[in-house]
Amino acid sequence: MSSASHKAESPEYPPLAIESVSKHFGGITAVDDVSLSADAGEVVGVIGPNGSGKSTLFSLAAGGQKPDTGKIRLQGIDVTGWPTWKIARTGISRTFQIPSLFLNMTVRDNLLAAAVEGDWKRARERMESTLEMLEISHVVDNLASELSGGQQKLVEFGRVCVRDPKVILLDEVTAGVHPNIRQIILDAIQRLRKTGITFLVIEHDMEMVKEICDRLMVMDQGKVVAEGDFDTIASDSKVQQAYLGRT
Amino acid sequence: MASKPVLTPKLIVRALLIGAVVIALTVLPAFIDSYTLRIATGALMWAGLACAWNIVGGYAGYISFGHSAFFGIGAYTTAILMQSNIGASFFVTLLPAIILSIAVAVAIGGPTMRLRGAYFAIATWAFAEMLLQLATVLDFTGGTAGLSLPAYLNEFFFYYTMLIASAASFIGVWLLIERSRFGFRIKALRDDEPAAESLGIRTNLVKVQSFALSAAITALFGSIYAYWTTYIDPYSVMGPEITDQMVVMVLLGGLGTVWGPALGGVLLWITNRYIWSTFGDTVIYLPILGVIIALVVLFLPNGLISLIVGRQRGKELISRILGKL
To answer: Which stretches make up the ABC transporter domain (chain A) (predicted)?
Structure first.
């Protein structure tokens, strides 16, 4: 699916490795020496209060921002500083906090647009299976601008799936959606992880985090303040102080 | 990729309509006088030019005010190569005109298409103005006196040449943008550039490709126009109203659609000629263009083509593109 070099691609390398990454905006440290490694099929939750640096970390991993220090590796390939399109072609795909659909295109074209840099011959087949998985076949000819907020979240998630990536970054993909749509997304994540796709998930929905995440990383003021499984995190005093205690 | 089922009733009707239009346009010269034939030839040219501008303005979402430069590049390349000291035949001049326009588009589009919104529009306008001023002072362009070309007074030849060029432009754009991966790329970057990049689309490259394609078609029509009129000067082939007309024709017909620019081009050109024949000059035409822009943006944001085709595209499209200005 990629035109980028995959020389280093090997099972011995994790699909995604973030190594001591920092990012500053003027005098503000948005991400401070954060490291994270995720294995194939793993679902890692990234949680923390608003402004803790979660979305910036996603942008650093996906190429929207360049880290000031540290490395980003995908399948062992150092992609630090690469342009977004090139990183995407190595097999990483993301959703945005606010859905970034192609509003003047239909749902069908949104999904097909996601496949243009991949295996184009199988694009329609992958689109059909994604439509079915996310239960949005009935709106396939609707313009994206005509969809409800929840449907837009589904289409954006579908666009990510059509690309057949190795790593998926989901930025609050279930925020504000109907419980039925939330369940469709959860089922899809569970199904896709079994195929070896790695997920990094930013979420505020603790029920969802508990249900799908193998482990969590908690950020506060750009730093990682705790890591571990849900129960460990839930009982961590730093986390309670930084995040859970504020709920 | 597997293709969709063919020969649906909708497709058959559309094919019949297109076939009827092609036949009508082919036999039209046999039924009209010389004056009307010139108007029809101009209409075909403007339809093709609107189609060309629509690639970068409507599909890529970048408003260019520099397309008159490419029209001029085509016209001057043909005129210079057909001067007696070189003596190239008309058809031989087309390829250099297209290649030169592509080279200039890549050189200009590379840096300027990293700019967004009004900055790109201003940069392209400045580029066109620069070329216009250069053409008025350079020797090989003939300066303000312009250049004369060998006369070929066969109106049928120019009608059919414009028809072929226009048809080729529309078919090419239809195949490239409505039926290929390139079309998905260009429309995706128009709607949301960061999202397009996150899908692996190399947006800067696609933008320059679209600009170059648009420039090449514009230059082609500039070449034909120069031979048709047998005389060009800087303002007749590089004047800003050339781009202005292209923009308004696309807005009127339907921004980012295949057939809208053709409709807008033909209607506005006929209006232009009607005003000219009625009032004797076209000064009044400019305020009319302004009024049309205002009315279309306010009341018909999807253009006239939306009245025919019916399907409303996203209301965001025109505001998204024009909102960048």
So the answer is: 16-246
